[in-house]
Amino acid sequence: MLYIIMRYRFIWRFYFCLFTFAFLLLTFYVFLFALLQALAYIYSFKLLFSPLMKKLRTILVIFIFITVAAYGQKVPTGNPADFKVKTCLHSVSYMGIWRGQATLTVDEFLVKAKELGFDGVMLAAKRPHVSLLDYDETARQKLRARIKELDLDLVCLAGYCDFASGVDKAGIPNVEIQAIYIGELARLARDLGTNMVRVYTGYERPDLPYDKQYAMVVEGLQSAGKIAAKYGVTLAVQNHHDIALHHDAMKWLLDEVNLPNVKAAFDCWSPTLEGLSSGEIKKAIYTMKPYIVHTTTADYKELPRFKYDLNHTNYIQQESQMRAVPIGQGFLDYKTFITTLKEIGYQGYIAYEMCEVLDGGGSIENLDKSAKAFLEYVKQFK
Asked: Which of these, 209, 278, 276, 196, lies nearest to 238 by C-alpha position?
């Protein structure tokens, strides 16, 4: 350890000085901007729109994005030695939203995650857990203190959005509404002590132009990303909703959004259901490498469904039903997925969720059993 410290001491000093200088310079610009704003109110409103004031505003915005890029979520380094297994439990696993699933309060969930041995937690930002409607300043301070008391890391808040909603209702500013909602989640995240919010793209509406819906997602992520940057928060876009679900489309989307604090929460689940082989999923991870800051795991078993056709005295195959099983017992290839994350030097947490009817039922005992199985499973990647 001493050898490492001595060997890299000059690099650490350089970055420390660089970040300190950037912070002091940013503070100076904020002070100057505030001073000129005050003078504008005293003498003339014209100063607010002067070239100098516009230039200062531009510089301030640039410094905000630089700060977010420097201190925000870290993308893969490319060095397998930088990979560490850091475990995270998603509170949706104990939120009672699936048939038969037990419900814990936020505090009970935090205690549960600590007792099970997880490093951090991912909190669902909706009722019955951490909803904006229920968490005023006092509640935020209390929750932040509780997380610190339990020595847990708040990895991120899980936001629930759909930027394509309202595409068929002209005149309603749904993209703005969604962006403001995500912006408020970013403020909540900052207040609770994390710098990441998980977000979605949008569900595709049939019989409406795809590109119109895609454009709404781009606009929404750009608007929400700029608001989130004010709070030093990164938006992690999960490959969950229809639009830009495939890794090539998601890479294109994030390139188009082009904000340093809009990254990817890339999971194994949807590429598997898209029909990608293990080798193709490995390539997908390398495609998404510049953006991956978070991943959530869950395993499933496929249950075939058939419908009886009376006219033909036969059965017609239907879409299969997916049911949750402990990780390693389903059809998702997490050995390839996590091994590839290790290869690219992934820096984030590996989250675990139970977000479907679970084999064995939704009792606390069975949920705990599945969570413990996850902790045991990921030990092989250390």
From this structure: 196
Same domain, 250 and 360: yes
pTM of the complete model: 0.84
**H/E segment holding residue 175:** helix 174-192
166 and 315 assigned to the same domain = yes
Same structural domain for residues 65 and 130?
no
- Indicate if the alpha-carbon torsion angle 27, 29, 32, 34 is positive or negative: negative
Which token pair is 294?
């978070």
pLDDT tens per residue, range 287-321: 999 999 999 999 999 999 999 999 999 999 999 99
Q: 331 phi and psi, to 5 degrees?
A: -100, 0
| 181 and 101 assigned to the same domain | yes
Q: How far apart are the first and last CA of the chain?
A: 19
Same-domain pairing of 62 and 184: no
Backbone angles phi, psi at 117, to 5 degrees: 105, 20
Q: What domain range is 274 assigned to?
A: 81-381
DSSP string, 27-85: HHHHHHHHHHHHHHHHH-GGGGGSHHHHHHHHHHHHHHHHHHHHHSPPPP-S-GGG---
Q: What is the CATH number of the domain that holds 299?
A: 3.20.20.150
Quick one: 142 and 246 in the same domain? yes
Report whether pLDDT(76) > 90.
yes
Let me know: does 150 contact 203? Beta carbons within 8 Å.
no
Host H or E run for residue 297:
strand 292-297
Based on the domain organization, do 151 and 39 belong to the same domain? no
